[in-house]
Write a structure and sequence with these properties.
By secondary structure, this protein is an all-alpha fold. The chain is built from 18 helices and no strands. The two termini are about 15 Å apart. The relative contact order is 0.16.
């Protein structure tokens, strides 16, 4: 049996890569697709509507979560899905130049969303099987940081790459094709890496007969809905990010749109640079700080500061829309402030889902939690483009700040164990 110090060291070989890999498909279908379609000429209303529908696989993934429990190991699912995701990224790259690129790529993004949602189930289940409950809480800030790091890589580094390639070649389609080939190579390599380094927890075994999947789905969902205070739990999962769900769809178009339309008219490369450098540093600091504070004091002590952190920074977008600054450092500082708050505040959400999922069927119950979380992002996101087109950017961002009210109300209602999240000394 390995020593505690060796086990601790081994965790760093797989938690960062596992959650970086979990985040990339999500950010591609939710955010990178927004910037891609904006570059290729679609309207904000179309972009928000069509890309918000891509949340649906993440909403309904609890329907097939028990199948992941019942067939093969979580380790097998993780590595196999990463190989499939790599193939789908390559398919997007190959079809962007076709006349019917929109219909084809949208269909591929749907397949990516289903594959990514299943990868979520497997990787979250593997995380809970590979660590005890106190370790799960202790490392939640790390996993959240690398998940968000993957999102910044997607909407930062890859967008920067697409922008620079577009500037040099004058061909946006070619630029985005290269980006998706890079993603394909990344996931094929990640699949091979995880086949070698992921540990083999004794509990990571197929559980039961796949023939009874439907019966299991009903039983597991029924058990989830019988949890104490389920109404408040669902309200929190649906409403904690009500404002953020709308902001995340319209922030990239706001940065890219010309000033005549109320946008900041940044180049695609500059949007990537701001999100991929300044935003990355701020988000990493926010996630690490919240993880340290929760491990020291417990989640309840920092519940309200985290709720404020995920909502109050939206005010910077009101300022940006009213002032329309041209200074990239100022814009970068505003984006960094918002990203720091998101990194800090999202930790509360993840810990609440872990706490809610604890007990029997924790993998499937955590998947149900993330399904309701995705529904909470999907529904507001669908009408955000239309709402922005009616209000204009400045009034839309004012509305986003008002939309923090449901988040504060549900935070006031939830109950959290005062010791939950505190890291126990050996």
């Amino acid at each position: 049996m390995p020593s505690p110090h060796l086990a601790e060291k081994n965790v760093w070989w797989w938690i960062p890569s596992l959650y970086f890999g979990q985040g990339i498909p999500y950010v591609v279908v939710m955010t990178l697709s927004v910037i891609l379609y904006k570059n290729l000429g679609l309207s904000n209303t179309e972009i928000a509507l069509y890309t918000s529908w891509l949340y649906l696989p993440f909403v309904i993934k609890p329907l097939w979560a028990p199948f992941v429990d019942l067939y093969q190991t979580k380790r097998w699912w993780v590595a196999s899905l990463e190989l499939l995701i790599g193939a789908l990224f390559a398919s997007v790259a190959l079809t962007l130049s076709l006349p019917a690129y929109f219909q084809i790529t949208l269909a591929l993004f749907w397949l990516l969303a289903f594959s990514g949602a299943t990868h979520d189930i497997a990787s979250d289940g593997f995380y809970m099987l590979g660590l005890d409950q106190h370790q799960q809480a202790a490392y939640v800030g790390i996993r959240s940081t690398f998940f968000r790091l993957s999102m910044i890589t997607g909407q930062g580094g890859l967008v920067y790459l697409a922008g620079k390639l577009s500037e040099r070649t004058g061909d946006r389609v070619l630029a985005w094709s290269v980006v998706f080939f890079v993603l394909a190579a990344m996931f094929i390599a990640m699949s091979l890496y995880h086949r070698r380094v992921l540990p083999r927890p004794l509990e990571d075994v197929a559980q039961g007969d796949p023939a009874h999947v439907l019966q299991s789905v009903v039983a597991v969902f029924k058990k989830f809905m019988q949890k104490n205070g389920i109404g408040v739990v669902l309200a929190y999962l649906l409403c904690y990010r009500f404002g953020e769900a709308q902001l995340v769809k319209m922030a990239p178009p706001f940065l890219l749109d010309p000033r005549a339309r109320g946008g900041l008219e940044l180049s695609t490369a500059n949007v990537g640079l701001i999100y991929g450098s300044i935003g990355l540093l701020a988000l990493t600091l926010g996630g690490l700080l919240s993880a340290w504070l929760v491990a020291r004091d417990g989640v309840r002590r920092w519940l309200w500061p985290m709720a404020l952190a995920i909502n109050v920074p939206h005010l910077v977008y009101v300022y940006l829309a009213l002032a329309l600054p041209t200074n990239l450092y100022l814009i970068g500082a505003a984006v960094a402030f918002e990203q720091f708050g998101y990194g800090f505040g999202f930790t509360a959400f993840v810990l609440f889902m872990i706490m809610t999922a604890a007990g029997q069927h924790k993998t499937a119950h955590y998947a149900i939690c993330t399904g309701f979380m995705a529904l909470g992002m999907m529904l507001p996101g669908m009408f955000s483009g239309w709402l922005q087109s009616q209000l204009g950017y400045a009034n839309f961002f004012i509305w986003i700040c008002v939309a923090a009210i449901p988040s504060f109300l549900v935070t006031a209602l939830i109950k959290v164990d005062p010791d939950f999240g505190i890291r126990k000394s050996a």
